[in-house]
């Protein structure tokens, strides 16, 4: 586990510090989108109904997990601030409390999803075979929720200690295991879409076990208690409240997009599953820079280094826009070759290629947004992010409803849908986070 270090000055040393955190974080961050892409590729060859059902189910599952991303964010910010202030024992104690909170929330959510899967799928507008496939996937993957949330909390602890390499190793091993289990269970054992859900659940639980052991060892080495401290758990829950609201606004926008895709038709919904998976993969790649910003900003504010925090902000933004431009070009250029990997349906292939091209054009703006989001999270500015998130959702709803009313099923409908989500919604986030970062109210120093 990494030790606290002083934030370097601007220039090449700062670039090295950012990349030393961001590059390993990239591998860990893309684990979840890779899981979804593997699921999409494996399940997509079972049929269009199975792929459409996976689209609904995976978005529900990612929404549940996404609403709990505060488990990673709050532990990263808290641990980084405390280590910046030289309080490593308190930092690890905060991390242990975060892991316990993850276990409790995960158990409750897993039970709720098992019971509510049919109602959830119906509420999203699905019926028939598509709904049946979605329910199957949700019920087989639900037991893995505890593992998913523990992975978030434990990863947050390690990021706060500036150790992004360990989550990378665990995530890489998990991605390989998930691929093998999906192929074996779906086709070898013949479980169909249920095998895909089960394989992902097993992988997540094993990843949680490995990361949990590493965090426990670090806590013992620093004299932190392994027992749950209710004051610390409640403090983490309170700190995470605004981030839940912020994440709820993001997931509400994503679910609204899924509902519109479902309403437009099976071709649009199936294509949306692949495009959203590739967008998620790209977004998590850009979020690697946001993770570096979180750790560096939290550590800098804890140590009172305001000037270096500003340097981190400027440099990470430059990296974010540049990385978004590169990723955008790659996506736009490869869409036609990627589409056949996911489906044999020619209409869905065209829809995927067109949707990916739209995402590619808008990716540099996404890089700007994700970095600013990470900076403000690292600073503990959750209350502002909650209000800003709701404002951006309000701005997006009319665009999504317009697509639902006027766009057709197929490639053009999917293009308009992604112009609304990746364009209107992301632009609203860029304005709200950019305005906040220009001031200094978010730069609160100390542990």
From TrEMBL:
The keyword Membrane applies. CDD domains: MATE_DinF_like. One of its GO terms (molecular function) is antiporter activity. Keywords: Cell membrane, Membrane, Transmembrane, Transmembrane helix, Transport. The chain crosses the membrane at residues 18-38, 58-79, 99-120, 140-161, 168-189, 201-219, 252-272, 278-298, 319-338, 350-372, 384-407, 413-431. It is found in: Cell membrane. It is a multi-pass membrane protein. One of its GO terms (cellular component) is plasma membrane. It comes from the Bacteria. Belongs to the multi antimicrobial extrusion (MATE) (TC 2.A.66.1) family. This is MATE family efflux transporter.
């Amino acid at each position: 586990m990494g030790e606290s270090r002083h934030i370097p000055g601007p220039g090449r040393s700062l670039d090295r510090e950012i990349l030393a955190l961001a590059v390993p974080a990239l591998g860990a961050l893309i684990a979840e989108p890779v899981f979804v892409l593997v699921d999409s590729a494996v399940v997509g060859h079972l049929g269009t109904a199975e792929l459409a059902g996976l689209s609904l189910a995976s978005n529900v599952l990612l929404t549940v997990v996404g609403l709990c991303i505060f488990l990673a964010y709050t532990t990263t910010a808290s641990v980084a601030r405390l280590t910046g202030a030289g309080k490593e024992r308190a930092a690890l104690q905060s991390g242990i409390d975060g892991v316990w909170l993850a276990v409790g929330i995960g158990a409750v959510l897993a039970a709720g999803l098992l019971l509510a899967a049919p109602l959830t799928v119906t509420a999203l507008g699905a019926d028939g075979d598509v709904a049946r496939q979605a329910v199957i996937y949700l019920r087989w993957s639900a037991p893995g929720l505890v593992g998913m949330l523990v992975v978030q909390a434990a990863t947050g602890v390690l990021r706060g200690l500036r150790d992004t390499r360990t989550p990378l190793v665990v995530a890489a091993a998990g991605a390989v295991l998930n691929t093998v289990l999906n192929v074996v269970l779906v086709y070898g054992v013949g479980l169909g879409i249920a095998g895909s859900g089960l394989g992902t659940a097993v992988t997540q639980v094993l990843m949680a076990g490995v990361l949990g052991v590493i965090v426990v060892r670090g806590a013992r080495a620093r004299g932190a208690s392994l027992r749950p401290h209710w004051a610390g758990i409640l403090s983490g829950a309170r700190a995470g409240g605004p981030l839940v609201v912020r994440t709820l606004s993001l997931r509400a926008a994503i679910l609204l997009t899924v509902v519109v895709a479902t309403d437009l038709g099976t071709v649009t919904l199936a294509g949306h599953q692949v495009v959203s998976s590739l967008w998620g993969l790209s977004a998590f790649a850009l979020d690697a820079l946001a993770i570096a910003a979180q750790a560096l900003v939290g550590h800098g504010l804890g140590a009172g280094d305001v000037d270096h925090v500003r340097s981190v902000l400027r440099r990470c933004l430059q990296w974010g826009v540049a990385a978004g431009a590169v990723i955008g070009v790659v996506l736009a250029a490869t869409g036609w070759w990627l589409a056949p990997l996911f489906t044999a349906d020619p209409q869905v292939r065209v829809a995927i290629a067109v949707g990916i091209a739209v995402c590619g054009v808008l990716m540099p703006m996404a890089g700007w947004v994700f970095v600013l989001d990470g900076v403000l999270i690292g600073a503990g500015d959750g209350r502002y992010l909650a209000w800003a998130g709701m404002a951006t959702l309000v701005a997006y709803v009319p665009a999504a409803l317009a697509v639902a009313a006027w766009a057709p099923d197929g490639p053009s409908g999917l293009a308009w849908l992604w112009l609304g989500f990746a364009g209107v919604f992301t632009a609203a986030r860029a304005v709200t986070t950019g305005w906040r970062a220009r001031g200094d109210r978010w730069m609160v120093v100390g542990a």
